[in-house]
Amino acid sequence: MLLYSNSSLPTEVSEFLLNCFTRSPTWQHWLSLPLSLLFLLAMGANTTLLITIWLEDALHQPMYYLLSLLSLLDIVLCLTVIPKVLAIFWFDLRSISFSACFLQMFIMNNFLPMESCTFLAMAYDRYVAICKPLHYPSVITDQFVAKAIVFILARNTFFSAPIPILSAHLHYCGKNIIENCICANLSVSKLSCDNVALNRIYQLIVAWTLIGSDLILIFLSYIFILHAVLRLKAKGTAAKALSTCGSHFILILFFSTILLVFVFTHMAKKKVSPNIPILLNVLHHVIPAALNPIVYGVRTQEIKQGIWKLLRRDG
């Protein structure tokens, strides 16, 4: 790998430079405070949720185990992306080593599909609870959660790991400045002198296959849930059934809406500022993470009770 140099001889390099909003320095000033607050909120809320589920025996159920997995994924994604972005904003620490860059790329490409797959497992949990309530205790068990977690880890690692591997094996013979706040695959691979068609096509196929199929199956499950709920005739039963999966559906909307906005903005990048896709890419790693535990904490009575018990215990 080579670094651009004024001399005629190329030199080996060991780092990239993240060119994060340097053309629009005012973006860094007004983004640093809300981004840091969102980061603290995400870390605090997810940590509180994990501790509450761990300490409260009433929450030792499959649905809350899956929610714990979601919180863990959110914490790792936030720690992978946001501290480095804030370091750039506050201290202009734009350099990132090759190994750190490709590790960040691996985690981002791996954990985001893991989140969508976790949402799918949670949607299946809600589908069984609403549409087949008599079978729920025998279908949604601790063994089901264990198998779901193994599947989530294995599927996404198998399909996502080639993305940073392909990018790391490209030949970098010129510039080492990444026009992004993070080591996104497309932003890094464009610096290579090699043909990156395989890299780009593989990422596109994996992204649409994994996340796209997950979202389709999730919304199909909610169509079946809605159909089953509308057939309930007992007074108040439909409202109660919808409330049990309302929190989950809101989380999916947070996840999918920001993702879809980012995709369409990236497709129309000639018509929007190049900073917009970069900003959305960063926010996608922190906004859902900050809102997920809050939505569940507000809408789920068992979690609210567990948090109050935790606060009284600390008090």
UniProtKB/TrEMBL annotation:
Keywords on record: G-protein coupled receptor, Membrane, Olfaction, Receptor, Sensory transduction, Transducer, Transmembrane, Transmembrane helix
One GO CC annotation: plasma membrane
Biological processes per GO annotation: cellular response to lipid
Database matches in InterPro entries: GPCR_Rhodpsn (IPR000276), GPCR_Rhodpsn_7TM (IPR017452), Olfact_rcpt (IPR000725), OR51/52/56-like (IPR050402)
GO molecular function: G protein-coupled receptor activity; olfactory receptor activity
Keyword Methyltransferase part of the UniProt annotation: no
G-protein coupled receptors family 1 profile domain segment(s): 45-296
Compartments where located: Membrane
SUPFAM superfamilies assigned: Family A G protein-coupled receptor-like
Membrane protein topology class: Multi-pass membrane protein
Transmembrane parts of this sequence: 33-55, 67-90, 205-229, 241-264
The keyword ATP-binding is annotated on this UniProt entry: no
Descriptive protein name: G-protein coupled receptors family 1 profile domain-containing protein
Organism field: Prolemur simus
Lineage: Eukaryota, Metazoa, Chordata, Craniata, Vertebrata
